[in-house]
Amino acid sequence: MILKILRYILGYVLVEINGFAPERLLNLLIKEEIVIWDVKQTENGYSFNIGRKNLINIKPFLQKTNIKLKIIKKYGLPFIFRRNKRRAAFALGSLIFIVIIYTLSLFIWEVNVTGEDHLIAEEILKYIENNYIPLGTLKSDVDCAELENKLRNDFPEISWISCELKGTGLTISLEEGIPPAKNENNNITGDIIAVKNAKITKMITRQGTPIAKVNDKVKKGDILISGTIYIYDDNNEIMETNYIPADGDVYGKTSYKYNDYIDLSYYEKEYTDKSQRYITLFFMDYCITPYLPKIDNDNFDTYTQIHKLRLFHNFYLPIGYKETVNTPYNLKSLTRSKDEATQILNKRLDKKIKEFEQNGLEIVKNNVKIEEENNRIVARGKITVIESIAGFRKTGDNNE
Amino acid sequence: MNIPDDVLYNDVILRVISNREAIIENYRGLHLYTTEEVVIACKKITVRICGSNLHVQYFSGCDMKIIGNIDNITYCMNGEL
Predict the structure, then answer these.
(1) Binding-face residues of B in 19-48 toward A, CB within 8 A
(2) Based on the structure, what is the number of domains in chain B?
(3) B40 burial type by CB count under 10 A (0-12 exposed, 13-18 middle, 19+ buried)
(4) Which of A25, A44, A48 has the alpha carbon at shortest distance from A36?
(5) What is the pLDDT of residues A352-375, one digit of tens each?
(6) If we measure between CA atoms, which residue out of A175, A160, A171 comes closest to residue A128?
(7) Cα-trace Rg, chain A
(8) Element (H or E) spanning A90, and its range?
(9) Which segments within A28-181 are labelled E, that is strand?
(10) CB B42 within 8 A of CB B12
């Protein structure tokens, strides 16, 4: 088998000899130690296979024995190369293409993050690209297990993470969980203080000495529940001071200033039909725009879509094109009625109130008033809410 | 010294596998080659292989291989044939 492959690589020829006593030629070949194989008798003489280079060596023997040689067929790579000499550039191009593809396959060209929360996935994707794996990192430099650990440390809200290298893409699958509760207050002595100016509406003390009472007005930084416990002796003098971590819930009435306005006259984009589309080719960070159309209008919206080239499913390449569509528009001056403006402001206010409610705040009073002022409609006022005002301060930090 | 005869006298070595193939070493040339008869010249003797569908698989400087249906192998002293 190896001999056959070797013969094919070096090339051989099937020849036919005829003339008077062709055995003489065979004997001469034997004497000169020229290897021939598959010797067969034909109608005119003999046919056999002989190596490409030996064919030249047997010329003097042919003349000596007066035997005619006819080449029947040529086998092997040298003949294929000679036949396809004109297509050398094509072969070279194919070779270069294979080398380039192989080289590109050694790097990472795409990072995908799949997760429940789209925003978190986007954030992680940017974080990974900026800190750990910029596009174009060698695949051999990426340690999936290490990356998983690093990400788990950096994002405590990740409950499950899996990194996978496929083709030239790195796929990170993750699932979010509830971040573990911070237990930093445990065993650290301190007081519960007010984080905002408020009027206390409800107070539950679990541990510590309550200083403030319900209906008290407190300022930011005031101690609500003290973590310092004094033990008095019979003479009502302090015998011992103990420090404990104060704990409790304190709710108070606080107010938020609300300020919003909307202009009665405004501008609106009026798109024209002359949207222009052009293609930009890119290779890694280099971009080429073959044709950049001129835009007459100064104002235009740009929408760019990036298409990355990929082979099969996961073999991403750093080559691709960007499709950009510029849509010019004219600014049109419009005026809205007072009712319209008021409606918009009311909608925004409702949204803000819903946000408060979602965060667990209870709305007590809303005295936001909407009025006209200098060609604009203004919503101004205070929203009074009941919320938790308790904050923790370590013992010894009082003088800060 | 135990020098083999084939080395010492350059004798012909014939290896025959069943009646299918014969490998001949230390031969000098070919007298006749047809599908029925192959006559091989050696130093002292001439080997005559008769049969049907005989064909030489390869020749090289030191050995050759004949395959086919071998009926008989005859040795003749040089000059007898």
Answers:
(1) 27-35, 41
(2) 1
(3) buried
(4) A48
(5) 888 888 888 888 888 888 888 888
(6) A171
(7) 43
(8) helix A88-104
(9) 36-41, 45-51, 68-75, 110-114, 158-166, 169-176
(10) yes
Q: Are residues A175 and A94 in the same domain?
A: yes
User: Are A226 and A278 in a shared domain?
Assistant: no
* B34 contacts in chain A (CB < 8 Å): 41
**Rounded to an integer, what distance in angstroms lies between the CA atom of residue A22 and that of residue A45?**
7
Does ipTM exceed 0.90?
no
**Among candidates A23, A35, A46 on the partner chain, residue whose Cβ is nearest the Cβ of B60:** A35
Token duo for residue A190: 């301190």
Whether the Cβ atoms of residue A276 and residue A291 lie closer than 8 Å to each other: no
pLDDT band at A400, cuts 50/70/90? very low
Q: Which of B33, B57, B61 sits opposite A37 (nearest CB)?
A: B57
- Res. B81: pLDDT tops 80: no
In a domain, A351, yes or no: no
The domain that holds A19 is classified in CATH as 3.30.70.260
Structure-token pair, residue A348: 């925004």
Yes or no: say if A62 and A25 are a contact pair by the CB < 8 Å rule: yes
User: A55 is written with which tokens?
Assistant: 């064919």
Tell me the per-residue pLDDT of A82-123, one tens digit each, with 9 for 90 and over: 888 888 888 899 999 999 989 988 888 888 888 766 667 777
Separation CA A393–CA A225 (nearest Å): 11
